[in-house]
Amino acid sequence: MAIEKWQSFGSARNFDDLFNRFLGTRSVGAQNTEPEAWSIPLDVVQDGDNLVVTASVPGTNQDKIDVSVDDNVLTIKAESASSSTDDTDSYLLRERRTGSYYRALRLPETVDYENAESTFKNGVLTIKLPKLESKKARKLEVSAA
């Protein structure tokens, strides 16, 4: 009998499985081949006076992407079709995701949504959101008293 250190959450793999089931982001493998909606991975960067959101939407056509802003919430919805057959019983391993993608992100009130620009190239969606002119930092002149 081997002596093992007791871990309150069991093995790390069991904890990851529990966490992923709670968030609904379980991996798609041989046991579960049903496509499911999943969160779009993204980066948000402050670039001067712009907020730049970069999202990965692989396998998606430009006409299947919907980007909207409502009440300071940026919403990205996309859909990618499976390039393989619908016979899910023949898969031995399935890791490439297909189906619906969704992500919502609350943005600061300083963003000018009217002048936002979005581009899509090679499976990457880039959204450039400039700051409102009235919300930009201003330099004040200091005078002698």
How are the secondary structure elements laid out?
Layout: H1 12-23, E1 38-39, E2 42-47, E3 50-56, E4 65-70, E5 73-80, E6 99-106, E7 117-121, E8 124-130
Parallel strand pairs: 1-6
Antiparallel strand pairs: 2-3, 3-8, 4-5, 5-6, 7-8
Radius of gyration: 22 Å
Overall pLDDT metric: 77
Give the topology string: H per helix, E per strand: HEEEEEEEE
Tell me, what is the CATH class?
Mainly Beta
Strand line-up in the sheet with most strands: 1-6-5-4
Fold and architecture overview:
The chain is mainly β and about 140 residues long. It has one domain: Immunoglobulin-like (Sandwich), CATH 2.60.40. The protein contains one helix and eight strands; from the N terminus they run αββββββββ. The strands form two sheets. It has a four-stranded mixed sheet, with no helix packed on it. It has a four-stranded antiparallel sheet with strand order 2-3-8-7, with no helix packed on it. It is elongated and about 80 Å long. The chain starts with 11 loop residues before the first helix and ends in a 15-residue tail after the last strand.
List keywords for this structure.
four-stranded antiparallel beta sheet; about 140 residues; 1 helix; about 10% helix; mainly beta; Immunoglobulin-like
Summarize the model shown.
This protein has 145 residues and is mainly beta. The chain has one helix and eight strands.
